[in-house]
């Protein structure tokens, strides 16, 4: 067992090679994990879970699958590039028809589209592991906390579902990876190494294209990169990062408007007011459930179900975990929030006492959490739905806090695997999907 100095940055030799960041065993494990998620996705698809709204924590898997697979789903400016993958899937289904294969083009496109998020999660795990290695985690610690990331119920559920969340997580972790790569180069005495601004700009546009609100997380990470890796002043880093986030947002919204001028497709309607809290008295509940959802990323205790009124021709329930509009707040919500707040206070203590990349990473994690909290204190009801937007921070914080307590990390991972197995074994009983067209 190592001493408390492990939280400090070790002496840097050089930037790690690709083989150190993405070892072959990890590539194999990430591939197997993605295939398992795809298998789960196909099962839930066959059971009809993706045919209706809200089965999994208020998620809209039905309309998102239509967008990703066919391009005829949502067409909302909140997710301006969501229909883009459908072009590739349509080409494949058309090619199958040209070749004379007797296939249902709709089914082909949907089965292909279900591969998208599992593949995204596999790449996310590689980038997360590479990021941890770049910020001086040992091989074993990086592997442990990449396993924790993979074992999170949020990663499993939204990695198997045709939704936007796993794609958002991939792009946010990609931003963090770019920061970490430049930080490693800086520590090795090569402060000017790192990706050019064009790559950051492309990421800003991609993040906005999936979900426009995630430009806030981009601005946090890119601002930290400019401040710490490029030695810009705080004011300059803030202005440039916000400006690039805004530029990415404007670019994809402009593209969205142009496409809908040229192509005769009706714009989708996204009524934001439906998801805004009904009054200021609901904000504390959202905050408590947001904080509690950060614990549910690691320990999803309390998954329950309630009648789903949007099942159409089906009869089914919807799963709930960190949901507001429950009065009074259940005891489990307060306990989850208290545990997470204790972790955050401990991490703040580490940040104050520890210079270098450790402090920088903690500040990035805090910024990602606060940017999401500012949104979801007034937006949304089921906070677990949005956890992929800050799952990076939710895992990085305990990874740093428990860096000197590896046994606790392994115990956490084993507990998570048990809770995952319990959830997957009872999900059908909770949903109770019956009937159908």
How would you summarize the topology of this molecule?
Layout: H1 18-21, H2 24-46, H3 61-70, H4 85-98, H5 105-113, H6 116-134, H7 139-151, H8 153-160, H9 165-187, H10 197-210, H11 215-229, H12 234-262, H13 283-296, E1 304-307, E2 314-315, E3 317-320, H14 331-353, H15 357-376, H16 391-401, H17 406-431, E4 434-435
Antiparallel strand pairs: 1-3, 2-4
Helix pairs in contact: 2-6, 3-4, 3-5, 4-5, 6-7, 6-8, 6-9, 7-16, 7-17, 9-10, 9-11, 10-11, 10-12, 11-12, 11-15, 13-14, 14-15, 14-16, 15-16
Write up what this structure looks like.
- This protein has helices at residues 18-21, 24-46, 61-70, 85-98, 105-113, 116-134, 139-151, 153-160, 165-187, 197-210, 215-229, 234-262, 283-296, 331-353, 357-376, 391-401, 406-431; strands at residues 304-307, 314-315, 317-320, 434-435.
- It is an all-alpha fold and 437 residues long.
- The protein has one domain (17-435).
- The strands form 2 sheets. It has a two-stranded antiparallel sheet with strand order 1-3. Strands 2-4 form a two-stranded antiparallel ribbon.
- The termini are far apart.
- Uncertain spans, ≥5 residues at pLDDT below 50? 1-13
CA radius of gyration is 22 Å
What coarse outline follows from CA principal-axis ratios?
Answer: globular
Q: Total strand count, please?
A: 4
The structural domain count equals 1
